[in-house]
Amino acid sequence: MLNQIKEALEAAFDIPVFYGTSAPATGKNITNYIVFWREKTHWNGSKKADPSCYYTVALVRENFIPEDEETKVFDVLRDISGLKEASNEDVSFDFLVQPETKLFLEVATYHFVAPRKRLPAPEVSE
Known about the structure:
Blueprint: H1 2-12, E1 17-19, H2 23-27, E2 33-42, E3 52-62, H3 72-77, E4 84-85, E5 92-97, E6 104-115
Parallel strand pairs: 1-2
Antiparallel strand pairs: 2-3, 3-6, 4-6, 5-6
């Protein structure tokens, strides 16, 4: 799923896409980028059920995120089989100043969920 998310975002946006941290962007003073990560794994009911994995995507743009891009992340990631918007999760907007600069950045944060089939435990031979 991580590779599918990365590939879909890279194909749709003409900006760098990072997994886990934006440190590579801030170290190079890149001001327009996307960072995504696994947020949590959740079991509904019992631990014997298959879990759902939650993902977060943050779209970062210098000054502000263009209005036509606000829904583009949803549009792109909806095409990935099994991945959908997390229910009861709004897109949130945050603002920050890039370290060691005076550049103002806007960050839109999106939440997604995908069911995950667990692999059977490997058999152990004695």
